[in-house]
């Protein structure tokens, strides 16, 4: 029998979340962002749930090939564009649209031999200071691109740094609009947080939205709002089982470093899941876990292959009982991945992407 840990991808939840995000920008088309192997879900596993998208946005050419191999004939956008000339050849061959964020990419495009001119997304650095042309250089880049026979259509793009927080998007939106207001072409501005939180400000200015995390059922502004508050459903469940039970007496300690000491009799469940499965080692005693759909607390340190939980609140639990590390239990009880990410001092993006290769996946 295999070790009982399992990651389950919920196709219906992916479709539901996609529809939920779309409802916040009803006039825009939706790029489902599937970079990082669909945020750890697996492009092939997530595809069915996401086929209602208008396009797929990603980074790796190999991932673009995989989406085409799924028979997707619609738009695919490379969010970081091309890294070398060979990539442009693949864009021509696979019909990929690509971001242009720097002069070097324009120069590369100018030397590219292609029968079919490319659709490109010219990215402005409106304040994030990662990729893109500074506002004062944007129009010159547009003019240079527009003169290339290799370019068919130029769309306009930026990315918000603070759509999830108090700083908001106003300054970046203003910088973008000041420079682009009279340029032709479609616009794509919003990630999940901008779409859900700033739909009114940005919705009518967007031809395409680019949601990622919300599609995967995590709240873009947790803990201000939970996934449930946004009407999002978990798309990944990490589950396992109890593989050992210990009866502790007062004063007994648990695990490496004896970081937890029982202050009374305690029935301890040992769960087949550890940091080598992608469960975050930074989670400390008190992190919630579901056993038979009921909330209990993790106690002691996360080790490579196991965690330990206090079974006191679930007297009927024992060997083989169902454990939900995040997601949805068999009975329908939910444990938001955002809660576990917060307990580990990180974000749900990282947890989703970090499920280890040794964990088997299923689709429901
Ligand atoms: C350019 C770009 N657009 C959209 C997204 C999707 O963002 P989110 O997952 O926060 O919705 C990302 C993700 O980091 C991104 O880099």
Could you characterize the architecture of this molecule?
Helix 7 links the parallel strand 6 (118-124) and strand 7. Helices cover 27% and strands 25% of the residues. It has 364 residues and is α/β, with parallel strands linked by helices. An eight-stranded parallel beta sheet has the order 8-7-6-5-4-3-2-9. Strands 10-13-16-15-14-17 form a six-stranded antiparallel beta barrel. Helix 1 crosses helix 3 (43-50) and helix 7 crosses helix 8. The radius of gyration is 23 Å and the shape is elongated. 46% of the residues are buried. The protein starts with 5 loop residues before the first strand and ends with a strand. The chain contains twelve helices and 19 strands. The longest helix is centred in the N-terminal third of the chain and has 13 residues, at 11-23. Bound molecules: pyridoxal-5'-phosphate. The site of pyridoxal-5'-phosphate has 12 residues, from helix 9.
Annotation field: number of helices: 12
The helix/strand class is: alpha/beta
Quick check: average pLDDT? 97
Separation of the first and last Cα atoms: 21 Å
Using only C-alpha atoms, the radius of gyration works out to: 23 Å
Low-confidence stretches: none
Number of strands: 19
How large a portion of the residues is in β-strands, by DSSP E?
Answer: 15-25%
Give the assembly state of these chains. single chain
Strand order of the largest sheet: 8-7-6-5-4-3-2-9
């Amino acid at each position: 029998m295999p070790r009982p840990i399992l990651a389950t991808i919920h196709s219906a939840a992916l479709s539901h979340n996609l529809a939920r995000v779309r409802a916040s920008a009803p006039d825009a088309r939706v790029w489902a962002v599937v970079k990082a192997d669909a945020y750890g879900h697996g492009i092939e596993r997530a595809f069915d749930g996401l086929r209602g998208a208008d396009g797929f946005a990603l980074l790796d050419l190999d991932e673009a090939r995989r989406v085409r191999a799924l028979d997707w004939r619609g738009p695919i956008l490379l969010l970081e564009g091309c890294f070398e000339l060979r990539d442009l050849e693949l864009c021509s061959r696979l019909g990929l649209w690509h971001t242009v964020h720097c002069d070097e990419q324009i120069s590369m495009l100018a030397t590219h031999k292609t029968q079919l001119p490319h659709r490109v997304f010219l990215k402005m650095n409106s304040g994030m200071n990662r990729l893109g042309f500074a506002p004062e250089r944007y129009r010159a880049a547009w003019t240079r691109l527009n003169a290339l026979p290799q370019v068919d259509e130029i769309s306009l793009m930026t990315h918000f740094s603070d759509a999830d927080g108090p700083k908001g998007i106003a300054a970046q939106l203003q910088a973008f609009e000041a420079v682009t207001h009279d340029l032709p072409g479609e616009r794509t501005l919003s990630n999940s947080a901008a779409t859900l939180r700033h739909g009114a400000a940005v919705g009518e200015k967007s031809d395409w939205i680019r949601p990622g995390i919300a599609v995967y059922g995590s709240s873009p502004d947790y803990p201000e709002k939970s996934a449930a508050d946004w009407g999002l459903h978990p798309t990944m469940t990490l589950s396992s089982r109890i593989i050992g039970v210990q009866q502790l007496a007062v004063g007994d300690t648990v695990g490496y470093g004896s970081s937890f000491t029982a202050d009374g009799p305690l029935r301890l469940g040992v769960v087949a899941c550890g940091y080598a499965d992608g469960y975050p080692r930074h989670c400390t005693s008190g992190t919630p876990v579901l056993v038979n759909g009921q909330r209990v607390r993790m106690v002691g340190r996360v080790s490579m292959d196991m965690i330990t939980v206090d079974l006191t609140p679930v007297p009927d639990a024992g060997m083989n009982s169902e454990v939900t590390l995040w997601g949805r239990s068999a009975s329908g009880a939910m444990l938001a991945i955002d809660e576990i990410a917060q307990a580990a001092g990180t974000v749900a993006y990282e947890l989703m992407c970090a499920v280890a290769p040794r964990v088997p996946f299923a689709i429901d």
